[in-house]
Design brief:
This protein is of the alpha+beta class. About 40% of the residues lie in helices and about 15% in strands. The protein is built from 23 helices and 21 strands. The chain has a five-stranded mixed β-sheet with strand order 1-18-13-17-14. Strand 2 and strand 3 form a beta hairpin. The longest helix is centred in the N-terminal third of the chain and has 22 residues. It starts with a strand and ends in a 12-residue tail after the last helix.
């Protein structure tokens, strides 16, 4: 069990925002030095560096003329200085037009690294001299954590070789909304305009499939839910992005393994993870502490605690969850079935877990008529008594909102939606939330079902665009880009390196919590099996289970109808040829 309090962790690393603030401090210090000590101005290269870095971090484009004007240098001196810095590799000069007659200027990765290191050293030495808290992370001029600090995203030496805009289809959630806010910075990096379209979950799936039927793709990059990857790969809707057998692909080992496995077939990656967002149980630690209670680790404890906490007269419900018809409650049932220790399909067992790769025909058979499935269904019916009156209209956003506004003591929630209360001091749950993997049936390990998103390239993009689009996907899922999303409101990462960057972890404990779960192997993808029929299976379950929760069907009848419909789907797709005598 992990608890998030309102305290702040010490600042050991530098974000892009903090580097920008340091540049302001450095400029002010130079001005005071000149005024008080009657010294001459700083070397001319310094003014050019500061102005160029500041514009890069704020998403402003600089040309030789604009940079010279802001640096205060004469025209001749400015041109000579910039020319020398281009020759030394500190500045990138990038053509703005096809003719190559006009250029934009950008700090090279080397220049960014130099100032990143310089800023940390100055702050640490200042702390060591005057006794501030930051001194403890520095020892004889070298940071203990310097290897895990990720510098800001640099500009490319040459613009991305794309004609027209980079067109991206996204899901409308906090991480991707952060990507939209960073549009100008990515345009600075790539050197081409970007067009971003963000849509809801079900609409996103429909748009991807509709786009795949077109002769030429409307989008260059699409965002896929991890559970859609089997469908997109099997039907040939997405192209390979990376080959893990290539010596240049070692960076992919930085991704959380379960997230990487959703795009991997052999050594080929058909996308790259941009979010690892497991579903966790969240709970009001302050309410539990007031009554001397502990968070639940088993399903029996969850039910008992939800019943004890449920007090609608006081405006507090025991727990909220996805109960809306269709995909929301269908997903709830899949994950609850996993908490009881069973997969919805006849997947091969691997200890307490299941394997959803290299499946035989019999592994595709639904298993909805088992005693375990019936227990899961009956559990959900009982949980209704300790849930909000409108729980059967709740999906991902509504359940998080219910918890964030203080109307529930517990909730299931994906980490990608947690900024709703993690970043809002007005929320009653702010600084008072604990986190845990899903409670499980006795004898089964607790897991956190994997959710998340991958960036993919549609298979019907113009062939000449494929190579630069692979570069774009690598950049948009890079450690530097991931850190940038987090600095702008996201709370999720798919990379170990980003989770371990001190400036990322500072004030965002949910990120290292998820990282620890990933290292322990608690984040698992099998609750939503990697089969191309998954979306349809979830829809069927979502209709039958919802009818059961409305009391229109008994649990056994709902499961029988769901089994029959799923069998029909699988047989129609040629997965197997007949229904077994026991109905499975």
């Amino acid at each position: 069990m992990e608890h998030l309090n309102s305290g702040r962790m010490p600042l050991d690393g530098f974000s892009g925002y903090e580097l920008d603030r340091f540049l302001d401090f450095f400029g002010s210090l130079g001005a005071e030095t000149e005024r008080c000590l009657k010294l001459g101005p700083a070397p001319r290269e310094v003014e050019v560096m500061v102005q160029l870095l500041r514009s890069h971090l704020r998403g402003r484009l600089e040309t030789p003329s604009s940079l010279i004007a802001k640096s205060g240098l004469s025209r001749g001196t400015g041109h000579r200085t910039i020319k020398a810095m281009i020759a030394s590799g500190l500045i990138y000069q990038r053509a703005r037009t096809k003719s190559g007659r006009t250029f934009s200027l950008h700090p090279s990765p080397e220049l960014i690294d130099m100032w990143h290191d310089f800023a940390r050293r100055v702050i640490a030495l200042t702390g060591a001299s005057i006794g501030t808290a930051v001194a403890g992370s520095y020892f004889f001029g070298a940071s203990y954590l310097s290897g895990s600090l990720i510098p800001p995203l640099p500009a490319r030496a040459e613009k991305l070789a794309l004609t027209g805009s980079l067109r991206i289809l996204l899901h409308a959630d906090p991480t991707f909304l952060a990507m939209q806010r960073l549009k100008r910075q990515f345009e600075m990096h790539f050197g081409v305009p970007t067009e971003v379209r963000a849509v809801s979950l079900d609409r996103l799936h429909d748009e991807i499939l509709d786009n795949s039927s077109r002769r030429s793709s409307r989008f260059d990059v699409v965002t896929s839910d991890t559970c859609w990857m089997a469908e997109l790969i099997e039907k040939g809707h997405v192209l390979p992005v990376e080959d893990m057998s290539s010596p240049s692909s070692q960076d992919v080992l930085d991704f959380h393994p379960e997230a990487l496995n959703t795009v991997r077939r052999g050594s080929t990656l058909f996308g790259l993870p941009v979010q690892t967002t497991p579903e966790l149980l969240i709970y009001r630690q302050d309410i539990l502490d007031e009554q001397g209670l502990s968070p639940p680790s088993t399903l029996d404890e969850l039910m008992a605690l939800a019943g004890r906490m449920h007090n609608p007269e006081r405006g507090l419900n025991g727990i909220c969850w996805n109960g809306a018809r269709g995909t929301p409650v269908g997903t709830t049932f899949l994950m609850l079935l996993a908490d009881f220790g069973q997969s919805a399909l006849n997947l091969p067992r691997d200890g307490h877990r299941f394997r959803d790769a290299d499946l035989a025909p019999d592994n595709y058979r639904p298993r909805l008529l088992t005693d375990t499935a019936l227990k899961a269904a009956e559990f959900l019916v009982e949980l209704l008594d300790h849930s909000p009156d409108n729980v059967l209209q709740m999906s991902w956003y509504e359940r998080a909102k219910c918890y964030a506004e203080g109307h529930a003591a517990m909730a299931y929630c994906y980490t990608q939606i947690m900024p709703m209360f993690l970043n809002d001091p007005a929320s009653p749950a702010y600084g008072r939330t604990g986190f845990a993997p899903h409670p499980s049936a006795r004898g089964n390990p607790q897991i956190a079902p994997l959710g998340g998103w991958n960036l993919c390239i549609p298979s019907n993009v113009t062939p000449s665009r494929v190579a630069p689009l692979r570069e774009a996907v690598r950049t948009l899922t890079s450690a530097a880009a991931t850190k940038l999303y987090i600095e702008n409101g996201s709370t999720v990462s798919s990379r170990f390196s980003v989770c371990n960057d001190p400036s990322v972890a500072s004030g965002r404990p949910i990120i290292p919590i998820v990282d620890r779960m990933a290292r322990r192997g608690q984040i698992q993808a099998w609750p939503r099996p990697a089969v191309s029929e998954l979306s349809e299976i979830v829809r069927i379950l979502g209709e039958e289970i919802h009818a059961m929760l409305l009391r229109n069907k008994r649990p056994q009848a709902a499961l029988q109808d769901a089994q029959a419909r799923c069998d029909k789907l699988m047989i129609g797709n040629g997965r197997y040829s007949s229904i077994q005598p026991d109905g499975s």
